[in-house]
Amino acid sequence: MLPSEKLNFQGPYLRQNWSLPDSFIYNLAIKPSNANGFAKLVKSCKYFYSKNPVSLSPIFPKLYKTDFEKLDLSIQTISYNDFLFISSNVENIELIRVVIKNEEVPYTIVPLEKLVKALPKIKNISLCENQNHMSSIFTRNTVKELLIIPHFSKISKITLHNIPETFDIETFFAFIKKNKITKFRLYFHHSFSAAYKNCLEAIIDEILQTENHDYKVPCICFYGLEEKKWKKLQSLYDKN
């Protein structure tokens, strides 16, 4: 049983029957005349934001400095330099389908370990990346690089979605058992090999068969995990 992925728009909806031609409405969404007018359109109907999600990039040059302690971004593409500018003081961060790119062309996605290293005050991280990107925020070196970041082991809570099998879960689980501070929620991508699935199963079985945990039990979920095991693991996680 897998938990539902967070959605941007939830609840019932009805297809709009515009009094104006669809082409006119589309152009209105893509090329709004001004920011105030577009804000009113977004409040009136989900359609306008879905066709033209607000982009943060034009805002950055107008900012003098930022002191954000909490940062939630969704469906954005920003540069690494802009990320550094807005996140230097961030303690809580949530990134939903956000692409943070290096400046070089063609651009590459900044890996998770580089983002964490740039967040010295971070306490809580929640990350869900877009499954359709050609490259991933997770690399083969992600676990290795994360574990040498001094403040990584002091983070209170880390939630990661769509983790690929390049993620070295065995090394990471060994770290989890030594860490006494961080609560982990790890949701794995639906596509992985049988060998990787067996590895995840073995880790979960070890957790469930251990009577007394001297570490914070992680919540680990993947497609194909038995519901009984999932519920028991969730219960142990909640008791942390």
List keywords for this structure.
240 residues; 8 strands; DUF38 domain-containing protein; 2 domains
Describe the structure.
- The protein is of the alpha/beta class and 240 residues long.
- Helices cover 34% and strands 15% of the residues.
- The protein is built from 9 helices and 8 strands.
- The protein has a 6-stranded parallel β-sheet.
- The longest helix has 16 residues, at 194-209.
- The model is unreliable at 1-11 (pLDDT under 50).
Basic shape: globular
Radius of gyration: 21 Å
Number of domains: 2
Can you write the helix and strand succession as a string? HHHEEHEEHEHEHEHEH
Unreliable parts: 1-11
- Counting DSSP E segments of at least 2 residues, the number of strands comes to 8
Structural class: alpha/beta
Strand content: 15-25%
Largest sheet: 6 strands, parallel
Overall pLDDT metric: 84
User: How many DSSP helices?
Assistant: 9
N-end to C-end Cα span = 22 Å
Relative helix content:
25-40%
Spatially, the strands of the biggest sheet line up as 1-3-5-6-7-8
